[in-house]
Amino acid sequence: MDLDIENLIRENSQMDSMHKFRENNLFLSDKQIEILEKYGIHYQDYVSTASLVYAIETRLSMEEIEELEIIASELSEYQYYHEVNK
After folding, report:
1. At 27, which helix (H) or strand (E)?
2. Do the Cβ atoms of 71 and 35 come closer than 8 Å?
3. What is the pLDDT of residues 35-47, one digit of tens each?
4. Which of 13, 37, 82, 83 has its CA at a distance of 20 to 30 angstroms from the CA of residue 72?
5. Rounded to an integer, what distance in angstroms lies between the CA atom of residue 52 and that of residue 49?
6. Is the Cβ–Cβ distance between 46 and 52 less than 8 Å?
7. What is the C-alpha to C-alpha distance for residues 16 and 30, in angstroms, rounded to an integer?
8. How far is residue 76's CA from residue 15's CA, in Å, rounded to a whole number?
């Protein structure tokens, strides 16, 4: 029984980190959204990855927050590999 519960918890944790396209076409995980909202950044207000990264960087210019730095880095990498015409 405990093994089943542990597997469900592990699967749920993996689901939180799985990226999905959101209604505004941003590619974010539930965990990223949770962190953004924790710091008052509402991803629904942005129409592009670049504008969301800019908002995060603006927040980071006021205060160093490791969680937001990681998200900004992940989004920038995604933008480079998937949205920039090469």
Report:
1. strand 27-29
2. yes
3. 999 999 999 999 9
4. 13
5. 5
6. yes
7. 5
8. 22
Which pair of tokens denotes residue 54?
A: 């800019």
Rg of the Cα atoms in the chain: 15
Amino acid at 75: L
- CA-CA distances (angstroms) from residue 68 to 8, 15, 24, 80? 28, 20, 20, 18
> DSSP class of residue 24?
T
What residues contact 25, with CB distance under 8 A and at least 6 apart?
A: 47
Residue 21 CA: distances (Å) to CA of 17, 33, 51, 59: 13, 12, 16, 24
Find where tokens 């995604």 sit.
78
What's the pTM value of the predicted model, to 2 decimals? 0.77
